[in-house]
């Protein structure tokens, strides 16, 4: 059973990201403030529920949340500032979209940079402990998946609609065969034998 609140404050926002370990596409974060009376028995860490259930939860969260924000940070910026900084930036950008402004932020994981004027706490495996972080994990994942399905149309040989940019055998084989696209993260180890990669 996921907990509703960590800080005891009403305007507590949960934040999480998706796509950190991908070879292509953005890292996407979401921030969500849920109402006090929010209930949902299906909602859990997005990695624990099926894609179908995530897509069903997406409009429920969007309708029932007090507010939510979603932000992509794209591959060019990931290559410039590194994936950890890009993940935190995406979370900050999502929090900046919230109105009302949260009184407290709970963050999935153990790394975060202080958001101006709002206290926060990092919670390891928070997406499996708190409803607002789980809701943020579902929105981050669904928004990112939909984006990857869209760019799949442009480069179908990498099968992003299935692997969403993660380093599957099939994705790596396609990189080996076709090289990389503008959507690939150039600072990531795209192939085990990186030296042979033709840009």
From TrEMBL:
Keywords noted in UniProt: Hydrolase
UniProt EC number: 3.1.26.4
Protein's UniProt name: Ribonuclease HII
Lineage: Bacteria, Pseudomonadati, Bacteroidota, Flavobacteriia, Flavobacteriales
């Amino acid at each position: 059973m996921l907990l509703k609140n960590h800080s005891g404050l009403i305007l507590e926002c949960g934040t999480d990201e998706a796509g950190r370990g991908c070879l292509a596409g953005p890292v996407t974060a979401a921030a969500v403030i849920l109402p006090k009376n929010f209930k949902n028995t299906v909602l859990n860490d997005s990695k624990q529920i099926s894609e179908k259930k995530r897509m069903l939860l997406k409009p429920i969260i969007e309708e029932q949340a007090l507010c939510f924000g979603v932000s992509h940070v794209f591959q060019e910026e990931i290559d410039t500032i590194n994936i950890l900084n890009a993940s935190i930036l995406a979370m900050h950008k999502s929090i900046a979209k919230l109105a009302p402004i949260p009184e407290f932020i709970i963050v999935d994981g153990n790394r975060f940079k202080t958001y101006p004027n709002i206290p926060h706490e990092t919670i390891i495996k928070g997406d499996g402990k708190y409803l607002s972080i789980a809701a943020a994990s579902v929105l981050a994942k669904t928004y990112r998946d939909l984006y990857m399905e869209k760019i799949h149309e442009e480069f179908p040989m990498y099968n992003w609609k299935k692997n969403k940019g993660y380093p599957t055998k099939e994705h790596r084989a396609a990189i080996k065969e076709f090289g990389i696209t503008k959507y690939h993260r150039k600072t990531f180890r795209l192939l085990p034998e990186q030296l042979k990669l033709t840009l």
